[in-house]
Amino acid sequence: MKTSKAVGRIGKGKILETVLSVSGRLPEVEYLNKQLDIQWSGQFALDATFLKLKGELFVLLLCSDFNSLDIVDYYIAPLENYHSWKKFLLSITPELTKNTLIKFFVTDGKRGLHQAISELFPNTPTQLCTTHKQRRINQIIPRVRGDGYDKLFSHLAHQAIRAPLKEIYQFYLNILIDFQNNDEYIKYPNPRKEKLRKIIGALRFQKNKLHTRYDTGIEINNPTTNHLEGINSFLKERIKLMRGFKNSDNAELLIKLLIYYYRFHPFTSSSFKERNGKCPAQLNKLNNQKLLDKILSGSEPSSWIRNLLSGT
């Protein structure tokens, strides 16, 4: 990197050393949450993204506030399974329950995660993420390629997932089932039969959790883990650019820095207009507004780093 003549050139090793040094001096997410005294909404999204560490795949477990999209905490684990999720949820339970009852979780369909939730929070409703369900449909039938039947089946499945009422969901599912029960089904090519069978199976799989927003009477607007604009999407894009980590200590420090950048970086193109111009941390209710104002003071994009390092 070329800088001023007085400084000369800075190699990538020096840049990495500086970045890691800065991240190492930042407080842990849990500590800052307590300092800000954030009043979480009681509505939480649980999701995971993956990273390569020394050529092996690891998982980054994430918990964010469903309303503000701010990060509650995270955990790097070797596998995404019941044991990893339970360990993570146990560690953050005091933070999740400190000021309000947990109203609901929004999650993907991982059975290990659902088992951990049912054991630790047996009376808490769990809503299946509609974005994950739609992505599963797109894996079965890509929305762009395919013949007219492919596009029709995909359209009906997406309409069912996005249905505002349970009866409308069942209406679109029944249309797909009627295709399967029709005499014409026998004449379908085997690949088309298989696609239809998989789509119907995907819509039926964990249907009770997909219907939580209908059955419990709890208002869950946009029932998704915010995979498209939340912390998961943000991290996935940047971790992909890094193409993996060679050092576990570096991975933890860089991920922490990315998470802090996300927390104090304003939304600019959110699907919810009221979020634009504000960072996730600003969208929380908190008891220490003075500290947040101090962190966000300054006109430079990186002012929050200097403010955090000056002491929280």
Number of strands: 7
Structural class: alpha/beta
Alpha-carbon Rg, integer = 22 Å
> CATH superfamily membership of the largest domain, which one?
Ribonuclease H-like superfamily/Ribonuclease H
List segments where confidence is low: pLDDT < 50 over at least 5 consecutive residues: none
The number of distinct structural domains comes to: 2
SSE order in H/E notation?
HHEEEEHEHEHHHHHHHHEHH
What is the count of helical runs? 14
Oligomer: single chain
Helix fraction? 40-55%
General form: globular
CATH fold node name of the largest domain = Nucleotidyltransferase, domain 5
Mean pLDDT over the full residue set:
89
Outline the biggest β-sheet: 5 strands, mixed
DSSP strand content: 5-15%
List its salient traits.
14 helices, single chain, two-stranded antiparallel sheet, alpha/beta, globular, Nucleotidyltransferase, domain 5, five-stranded mixed β-sheet
